[in-house]
Amino acid sequence: MAEILLGAPVYEKIMEDVKARCRKLKLAGTHPKMALIRLGDREDDKSYERNIERVCAKADIITEKHLLPRDISQDELVKLIHKLNNDDTVHGIMMFRPLPKHMNETFVCQQLLPQKDIDGITDASIASVFLGRGEGFAPCTAQACVQMLDHYNIPIAGKRAVIIGRSLVVGRPLSMMLLCRDATVTICHTKTKNMAEICRSADILIAAAGKARLVNEEFLSDRQVIIDVGFNVDEEGNVSGDVAFDIAEPFVTAISPVPAGVGGITARLLAMHVIEAATTAQKAR
User: Fold this and answer.
1) pLDDT tens track for 68-126
2) Which of 20, 170, 191, 205 has its C-alpha lying 20 to 30 A from 79's C-alpha?
3) If you classify domain 24-116+264-284 with CATH, what class do you get?
4) Which of 192, 243, 238 is CA-nearest to residue 216?
5) Distance between CA atoms of residues 128 and 200, nearest Å
């Protein structure tokens, strides 16, 4: 039976640190604040927004919501971003995506100041991950995977890590983060040949493809640690990860479940990034 890598012990430890650092910042005259930008009423955005608000409330981080219609012009959205960039009381900006199709999402994202880009969506933030230095923050889901491995004392250096998925949200930044920790990294994607064979060679297998139960018995070996980033909902409302948990759990060394795995860590890392941004801003005063 595999060790179950639950997210709760990881994010509870993060929150202890966030709360302590927030109290210290407030005593020094800085009250950390996160600005949330949401366009329209997508249910998944609203659900994540509520989660972020709960997390911030527990840590005494201020949340400032900017709720905009989906048909707002790109110029108006950019003006708001610039206003928040120039507001010294706002330390982090979280913008829900995808943006409406009439907008150039890449252009809009680049308008955020890297030091306030707490979700790692600007080019400068991604560059800092790839270079190991610079302003900006790592994408929260990618960072959550590394946090989980560290919390459960799973060695990274010298291990073979295979990531299924090459997005800028998880796959590519996570590959660089693991490489910086001396793992040997392979990225698989939709054009990869012999994917199952490659995955069987992994010491650490991270599934971030967005395809329910993609990882089955053909992908597994008994030495593997599996981090399942997938979150898939079928027509009946049943939730599953990218890994067939019932098949993998009796066989592999350790595995994170869906739900109750890495998903809960991401909002806590947003809060941590706000604290880090506020600390940097305070030092610069």
Assistant:
1) 999 999 999 999 999 999 999 999 999 999 999 999 999 999 999 999 999 999 999 99
2) 170
3) alpha beta
4) 243
5) 31
- Residue 285's pLDDT is what? 76
Over 90: is that where the pLDDT of 280 sits?
yes
> Quick check: 235 pLDDT over 90?
no
Specify the length of the chain in residues: 285
- pLDDT for 89 equals 97
The Cα–Cα gap between 145 and 277 comes to: 21
- What is the mean predicted confidence (pLDDT) over 216-226? 97
Cβ partners under 8 Å of residue 108, min gap 6? 74, 77, 78, 81, 95, 99
- Structure tokens that stand for 166 in this block: 């090459």
Cα–Cα distance, 156 to 152 (Å, whole number): 11
The domains of the chain are located at 24-116+264-284, 140-260
Domains 24-116+264-284 and 140-260 share a fold: yes
Q: 142, 170 in Cβ contact below 8 A?
A: yes
End-to-end CA distance of the chain: 53
140-260: what fold? Rossmann fold (3.40.50)
